[in-house]
Write a structure and sequence with these properties.
Blueprint lengths: L15 E8 L6 H9 L18 E6 L2 E7 L9 H16 L2 E7 L6 H11 L5 E7 L6 H18 L3 E6 L8 H10 L18 H14 L6 H4 L1 E9 L10 E9 L2 H8 L4 H18 L3 E9 L7 H6 L3
Parallel strand pairs: 1-3, 1-4, 4-5, 5-6, 8-9
Antiparallel strand pairs: 2-3, 7-8
Helix pairs in contact: 6-9
Bound molecules: guanosine-5'-triphosphate.
Length: 316
């Protein structure tokens, strides 16, 4: 991780800086909201629950402050060792940030999963909590009003004091700027923590691996999404290229848990893997701004979600 360097606003009076994280049950829209606030796709999203596994920071630069967003996996009842590790990661993050924003999707009623999260969050006393009603484009005004009341009620029931309750839509871009402004206002006074213009401090290898995983998740079903892990083994500019025509070589392995899954990932005559590679390559090129050569291989790491040694190897 590069050392944070002070930015131009470092000495501006009244400048605020700090850390916030979005939490919420799987699929609540946390990653999409992170990308919307940062203004660029730095976190992968998908319609499969529990997509987020790594903690990636998004950095929001505003005239009045700098907001560092930490993305966390959805908290859920753990069924595997991976599940337990992810839950631990979530709680460790909560106690380290200045503000925790709990996301409640407006198109769904508040349920036991949300209560579980807010109760757990209540145990972390000092952190400021706000509630975000996400996906308001999927609900009509009456439903949103009812949802906001339910969120306030959940706060009362669990003894949680919401510093704000904010409805937003990442897809429609509604109230995103307001949310950023409110979050910055809740940060402690202090100088910028990252250089101006940096959008994330996640290493490029991690970003590339995540974009490959996102492409691989598209169109797979059942338990296969959870079985996919991607590791970038090697990444570097190809030597001997003209300075104006760089090419970034990326060698990555896509792990699944069983031979049958390997077959599905590769597809008929390799068609599916080629498609995943093409989609991922374009996304990586657009994020990093360099043409990419992507060498993607599918490997089997038998039952890796339950095996401590393999989990470590895959970065968990
Ligand atoms: N219509 C609409 N859909 C949204 C909005 N925000 C997110 N979604 C969709 O909801 C799904 C889940 O979004 P994510 O951002 O991946 O959710 P998450 O909370 O990060 O999910 P996990 O990583 O599983 O914890 C995706 O299909 C998104 O496109 C929104 O504002 N409006």
């Amino acid at each position: 991780m590069p050392a944070p360097a002070p930015a131009v606003f470092a000495d501006a009076e009244g400048f605020r800086s700090g850390f916030a994280c979005f939490v919420g049950r799987p699929n609540a829209g946390k990653s999409t909201l992170t990308n919307a606030i940062v203004g660029q796709k730095i976190v992968i999203t998908s319609d499969k629950p529990q997509t987020t596994r790594t903690v990636v920071r998004g950095i929001v630069h505003r005239a009045d402050g700098q907001l560092i967003l930490v993305d966390t996996p959805g908290l859920h009842k753990p069924r595997t060792l991976l599940g337990e590790r992810l839950n631990d990661l979530v709680k460790a993050t909560w106690s380290e940030v200045d503000v925790v924003a709990v996301c409640f999707p407006s198109d769904e009623k508040i349920g036991p999963g949300d209560k579980f999260i807010v109760n757990e969050l209540g145990k972390i006393r000092r952190t400021t909590k706000i509630a975000v009603a996400t996906k308001t484009d999927l609900a009509d005004p009456e439903r949103i009003a009812e949802h906001l009341l339910d969120i306030a009620e959940l706060g009362r029931e669990t003894g949680t004091e919401w510093a704000e309750i904010v409805p937003v839509s990442s897809v429609a871009g509604d109230q995103i700027d307001l949310l950023a402004q409110l979050l910055v206002g809740l940060m402690p006074e202090g100088q910028a923590l990252y250089p101006d213009g940096d959008l994330t401090d996640a290493p490029e290898e991690i970003l590339a691996a995540e974009l490959i995983r996102e492409a691989a998740l598209d169109g797979v079903r059942d338990e296969l999404p959870h079985s996919i892990a991607v590791v970038v083994e090697e990444m570097g500019l190809r030597e001997g290229r003209d300075e104006n025509k760089p090419l970034l070589d990326i060698y990555a392995n896509l792990y699944v848990e069983r031979d049958s899954q390997k077959g599905i990932m590769i597809g008929h005559k390799g068609a599916r893997l080629r498609q995943v590679g093409t989609v991922a390559r374009k996304q990586i090129e657009s994020l990093l701004g360099t043409p990419v050569y992507l060498d993607l291989k599918v490997k089997v790491a038998k039952d890796w979600q339950r095996d401590p040694r393999q989990l470590r190897k895959l970065g968990f």
